[in-house]
Structure formats: C-alpha cells, structure tokens
Design a protein that fits this description.
The protein has 656 residues and is α/β, with parallel strands linked by helices. It has three domains: 16-262, Rossmann fold, CATH 3.40.50.12780; 285-428 and 458-473, no CATH class; 478-655, GMP Synthetase, Chain A, domain 3. Helix 1 crosses helix 3. The longest helix is centred in the middle third of the chain and has 22 residues, at 304-325. The relative contact order is 0.08.
Length: 656
C-alpha cells in the first residue's frame, strides 16, 4: 500500500485561480499557452493569460454568474477556451467541458442536467449546435464564440463574440474594480473545480464532480514522480472534455507552470508536433496505433535494401532496446549495433513521429497491446502506462522508470491505497477521488463499498512486485462454456497491433469458442490494395474483397498462434470472423466519444451477425442505418462473408 500524499505545503496555492496568479507573479514573462494560427505560433505569457482571465471573469460577472454555477465549454483545444475555464473557476463557477465532435442532440442532456446558462463555443460549428437545441435547453442565455469566421451575419441576441465579452468585462471592472480579487479569495480547495461527464457506455452520462484539492493533489504527485518543471513542452490535441487530456494540458499546466501548445487543427497535429518537439507526451493507444500504421505504410513503399535494414534493426531493437532504456546490462556488441541503429533507423523514426525530445510519455484510456507498447520503448521512447479514471482524477497507478513491463500499469502512486476484492475487482482509496455524481446520489452510493472503497469496475491482480495488472473490465470478463477465461480486450489488443486492423470486437462469453468482428484500417489496406492493383469503390467494397479477407485472416492466424502459447489464455483463439461493412462510429452509438467500444450496444445492433458467426453460416445479409456528419441518415447493406481461422490445437486437450 502507498502512503498519503505529502507533496503540497500549506503555503502552496491550493486552488486553480490561486495557481494562475502565482505563475503570473513568479514566471509572468514565460510562455503559458501557444496557438498555431494561419501557420504562425502565437504565444501568451503567464502575465497575459492572467490579465485576460480577469477580463473574462468580469464579463461573466456582468452576466450574473454565481459560485457553483455551471459554464459549458465546447471546442478543440484553444487558449481562449482554457482561459474561459480559468475565469469560471476564479468566480467559484464550475467549467463543464463537452465533446466537440458530439452531435447537437447529445449535448442536450448535459445542458439540461447541469442547467447551463453560459456556453463558451469555439466556432460556427459549435454555435450552430447551440442554436439548434436552444429550445431544449431553457436555461441557456449566453453563447460566447471564439472564432468569428462564418458568423458575421449572425444577429441572434443569444450570441456574443470573445472581444465583446472582454469589453463587457472591462466595463464591469470600471464599476467594481475589486470584484475579481474578492471572488478569487472566496474559492476554497474543497470547492468543486470542474465537472466531467462520463462517456455513458452503459447508460446516460453521469456528471463527475471533482474538487480543486483532488485534481491539484494528483497533478503534484506526478510532478514529483517525473521531476516535471516549468520548462516542459506539452501538445494539447485530444478532446478537452476527456479527463486525460484535461489533466495533462490544463490541471498540470496550472500545477507545474509549463507550456501547453495548441495545434492549428486536428489535421495538422503531426506537423505541429514536429514544430514543438514535446518533452511530456500523452496519448491513448489508438493514436499510437495510428502513428505506427503510418510508419508501416511508409516502409511498405520503401526500397528492398531499406526494408531489409529496417527489419534487421527492429529485430535488434525488440531484443535489447527496452533493456537499454531501463538501464539494464546489455552486451557491448549489442550496444554498438543499437547505437548504429539509432543513427540509421531509431533516431529518424522518433523524428518522423515527432518524439525526438520526449522525456516522459504516457498512454492511458484503455489497455495498450503489449506488442505496440514494446515497439515504442524499443526505439528509445520512454513510454509508460498509467491507470486511472475520471472518478480518480486520473492517477491511480503509474509505471516507474526502470520498472516498466508491458503487462502491468505500475504500482499505486503516492497517496493511493489499492485492494483486489474477492470478485477480482480493483478497489481504490485516493485523495483524488470524486465528490459525487451530480444529482445522482444512488449511483454515487453504488460506486463505493460499505467500508468506503471506490469500485473501479476493472478486474485485475497485483503481482509479486506490487504492480497492478488489469485483465479487462470486470463486466466484460467471462467464461467460455468449458470454464476457460474469456477476456475480450486481451485478444482485441493483439489484433489491433496489425496496421491493417483498426478495431476488433470479440465474442465468446458462455459460448463454445471465440469469434470476432473486424474493422479494417482504410488507409493501410487501401495502400496495400493499390500496390497490388486491386481496384475498389470505397470501404464497404474493399472490406468485402477475398484478398482482404485473406490478409486479415493471416493476422488472426498469427494472433491465434501467439495466444495458444499460454494455457490459461488459449481459449481466446478466434475460430470464425467477419469484416464489418462499415467503420464503428461514435455518431452511430457504437463507440463512445473517447473511442471505446460500446459492447452491449454492438451486441444488440449486430445480433444477427453474432448469431451467424456461432451458427456456422458462411455469410449473412445485413442493413445498417448510419448518420452522416451533416446530420442526414442513410443505410448501408451488405452480404457479409464469414471465414474460419486456423486454431492451434489446444494444449489442455493435447495433455489429456
């Protein structure tokens, strides 16, 4: 068990507005936020951020914003949206970040549940959503927009530009010059700092209420663990509504005082990452999978010698790269070879990924495939796993330098107590725990044991070194009909290591064997098809091609051979599979906004396909309704082929 956190002294700032004013005083001329606009990086110093936050907060006061009131923020990562959150917190109000890619109707529930009166929106896209649903959100009175492009002819009294808000703040401050300082002084560490809505994998989203003390405590623990300084460079490119991104680029920004960089758009992240060269990096596995896919595609197009050199160097890296990174002893010959590989392959590869300066990289959000994890560490990137959730202010377990393993998420960090219940569930006590689910006392009570431990809902074990291993979501772990373990995430992660597979969903609980749906990675498979002069008319057509089935079948056969090596997991081999006719999509309810599979929804929506997989059919016809980005709906129909995979003879049966 870990002991209570003791990082913050009584003299340290205890709230977000106090931290902001502290940085403005101590490092006022250092960069706090950068934003790339029209190809040029614009910088806000800490002093400039504090000054603008004061003006925004005074603008909110003119609206009559009160302590405890919710202010919604929606858009990509933008300095002004961050400053809007800071301004809300300075008044004791509560920022509620919303997912920018959510359709308008998904936002209605949050606006209603939190009785949101003020929304700060990034651009015309988000403004249009607010105007569309205004009748369903009766409390909504003010929508402030950051980017005015496309909004010149909008005259709705609901709307206000950012510059108009600043002017309003100046006018308010002229009559009440002390109001801002008085409001900041009233904010206490135990007050609510932010509310994040869960992704709603099993029902309606829940508002997770987190205090200043909880969030800042967890940020300071990691600052100490990783020796973070105000010189770190961070790239903020994931949804601000996701607690992971919010912790790394907002809470830790204010706790440590480093610099956060906002890319021009999601499409320019790779280029902007090269510009910045982040030192502290955070990514969910899906982003790391995408990056590796791009590398693999480029190598497929390389010449024969370059391919040969890459393969040779990567075999060496897989053998010794991780050990060198962990400071373990490695033979002189291998060290020399690795150094040569670093010049020829690993260094250029890190540079191509934009990770040359990364000192610490974390992955979280869901389990990462061990092969994917080892790849990044083998080329010299200090990628580590962490474990946590919205309700725990992210940080529960973190891998320590020199003690990194692909199958663990590390030991509990400072302040965390952790136990494994008889059911196998991981249970937690931590200073970072949430206060409650907003207006949901029943769910709040159900989230804790009788003796006060938080139910994580994850199944795990502690190894001999005290490191936590997460097996899967507790509700997803089951048994095959013969009693062997069924842990779908384990085999899905192995499948997603292949660049041709973007998503996989395994089925097998209470069944005789395991089957799977596969989504191909359109970019990777299209590149593969073009090099073979294989014409296709789109995703559905390409996914149905016999050659593509053969390609995916080969990947599945390799995973089966790997899984079969472990007696306890050999039952996870996939017997039959199909390639879905469409990509799983959050807009269709199949994935959460953080791109996690909604298993129950998929099982219901594609029940006819699951039945076909287990009943021995060779194909199954299906029609599926889809939503397009512009709000229209349509239908995709296909006769899906079902193919068997090669299953390695079970070791238990052989022994018998």
């Amino acid at each position: 068990m870990a002991h209570q956190s003791g990082n913050a002294s009584a003299a340290d700032p205890q709230t977000f507005p106090a931290l902001l004013l502290h940085h403005a005083t101590v490092r006022g001329d250092r960069p706090a936020l950068r934003e790339k606009d029209l190809g040029i990086w614009q910088t806000y110093t800490w002093a400039q951020v504090a000054a603008e936050v004061r003006r925004v907060a005074n603008g909110f006061l003119q609206f009559g914003v009160q302590p405890g009131e919710h202010i919604a923020v929606v858009g990509e990562n933008r300095p002004r949206l961050y400053m809007a959150m800071m301004a809300a917190q300075a008044l004791g109000a509560i920022p509620v970040p919303m997912y920018q890619d959510a359709v308008a109707q998904e936002m209605v529930y949050v606006l209603q549940d939190a009785a949101v009166r003020v929304v700060v929106a990034e651009n015309q896209e988000q403004v249009d959503k607010m105007l569309e649903i205004r009748e369903q959100a009766p409390a909504l009175a003010h929508v402030i927009y950051d980017d005015p492009r496309g909004l010149r002819h909008y005259s709705d009294p609901l709307l206000m530009s950012w510059s108009a808000l600043l002017q309003q703040g100046d006018d308010y401050a002229a009559g009440a010059p002390e109001a801002f300082s008085a409001a900041v002084d009233r904010v206490k560490a135990d007050d609510t700092a932010a509310m994040f809505y869960t992704s709603g994998t099993t029902g309606k989203p829940k508002g997770v209420v987190l205090t200043h003390a909880a969030l800042i405590d967890r940020a300071r623990v990691i600052e100490k663990l990783e020796n973070l300084t105000d010189k770190e460079e961070v790239l903020a490119y994931l949804p601000p509504a996701w607690i992971g991104q919010n912790m790394f680029s907002y809470t830790q920004l204010l706790a440590t005082g480093f610099t956060v960089n906002h890319p021009e758009s999601p499409a320019t992240v790779a280029i902007d990452m090269h510009d910045i060269g982040p030192t502290y990096y955070f990514s969910p596995p899906r982003i790391l999978e995408d990056l590796l896919t791009h590398v693999t595609i480029r190598m497929e197009d390389a010449g024969r010698f370059k391919k040969w050199l890459f393969d040779r160097c990567m075999k060496l890296a897989h053998r010794v790269g991780g050990r060198i990174l962990d400071g373990e002893p490695v033979g002189t010959a291998d060290r020399i070879k690795y150094s040569i590989g670093n010049v020829l392959i690993y260094g250029p590869l890190r540079n191509a990924l934009g990770m040359n300066r990364v000192r610490v990289a974390y992955t979280a959000g869901e389990a990462i495939g061990p092969d994917l994890f080892r790849f990044y560490r083998s080329i010299g990137i200090n990628l580590k796993q962490l474990y946590g959730s919205t309700e725990t202010s992210v940080f529960v377990c973190v891998q320590s330098d020199g003690q990194v393993a692909a199958d663990t998420v590390g030991p509990p960090v400072d302040g965390v107590e952790l136990r494994i219940a008889d059911s196998g569930e991981v249970q937690v006590k931590s200073p970072g725990l949430f206060r409650e689910y907003y207006r949901n006392p029943e769910s709040t009570k159900e989230s804790f044991t009788e003796d006060g431990w938080y139910h994580t809902g994850d199944a795990g074990i502690l190894d001999a070194q005290g490191q936590l291993k997460i097996i899967d979501r507790a509700k997803d772990v089951g048994r095959l009909s013969d009693g062997r373990m069924f842990a779908p995430k384990y085999v899905e992660n192995k499948l997603k290591f292949f660049p041709f597979i973007k998503e996989a969903v395994a089925f097998g609980a209470n069944r005789d064997f395991v089957t799977a749906f596969v989504n191909i990675d359109l970019e990777a498979v299209a590149n593969w098809a073009e090099r073979r002069s294989l014409a296709y008319a789109g995703y559905t057509d390409l996914a149905s091609r016999p050659q593509v089935y053969e390609l995916i079948g080969d990947c599945i056969n390799k995973v089966n051979a790997d899984v079969a090596q472990d007696e306890a997991l050999s039952g996870l081999q996939i017997h039959r599979f199909l390639i879905l006719h469409k990509e799983l999509d959050p807009d269709d309810g199949e994935l959460t906004r953080t791109r996690k599979v909604r298993r129950a929804f998929i099982a219901e929506r594609y029940g006819v396909l699951i039945d076909a997989l287990f009943s021995g059919k060779d194909s199954q016809y299906i029609e599926t309704e889809v939503k397009y980005e512009d709000g229209r709906t349509g239908r995709i129909a296909a006769d899906l082929k079902i193919q068997p995979a090669i299953v390695v003879a079970d070791t238990l049966k052989k022994a018998a």
